[in-house]
Specification:
Structural class: mainly alpha
Order of helices and strands: HHHHHH
Distance between the termini: 20 Å
Number of domains: 1
Helix content: over 70%
Number of helices: 6
Largest sheet: none
Radius of gyration: 19 Å
Shape: globular
Number of strands: 0
Strand content: under 5%
Length: 139
């Protein structure tokens, strides 16, 4: 049986999580930088303006700040904020899915149920996370 509160196992999982986080944050920042041309074209009015661009830009760029701060601090607040922004990005993806399918009721229902399930998982994971202080552990 695995002893999940073993300090060696917790430290190993911490390092694996930080490496995964750094890789995913790097991919997200790379994608944000290299696709910024679309946003600039909309803001320079080379592409048609729609009101939904503000929801898109808001969720897109508010995730960059928690990713950068969580990359350096790895604090609980940064993780919680990043989780909230990920849920909002998932709402954006669901909205795009609904728009592509022409507001089909079946697709809209499936997208809404999937988003609500993801929201529930994120709320549960944020409330269950606790910081582990290695200074207070008894080795």
């Amino acid at each position: 049986m695995v002893k999940w509160d073993d300090p060696v196992l917790v430290l190993r999982d911490y390092f694996v999580l930080t490496k995964l986080f750094h890789a995913l944050a790097s991919l997200y920042i790379w994608e944000t930088v290299f696709s910024a041309g679309f946003e600039l074209d909309v803001l320079r009015r080379k592409r048609p303006y729609k009101w939904t661009i503000w929801l898109y830009l808001g969720t897109r760029y508010t995730l960059v700040l928690p990713l950068i701060t969580a990359n350096f601090t790895l604090s609980y607040i940064s993780w919680g904020f990043a989780s909230l922004i990920i849920v909002l990005r998932a709402l954006n993806v669901a909205r795009f899915r609904i728009a592509i399918w022409g507001r089909n009721i079946v697709v809209s229902s499936i997208a809404l149920v999937m988003w609500l399930a993801g929201l529930g998982v994120h709320i549960r994971s944020v409330t269950l996370v606790r910081e582990v202080s290695y200074c207070e552990s008894n080795y």
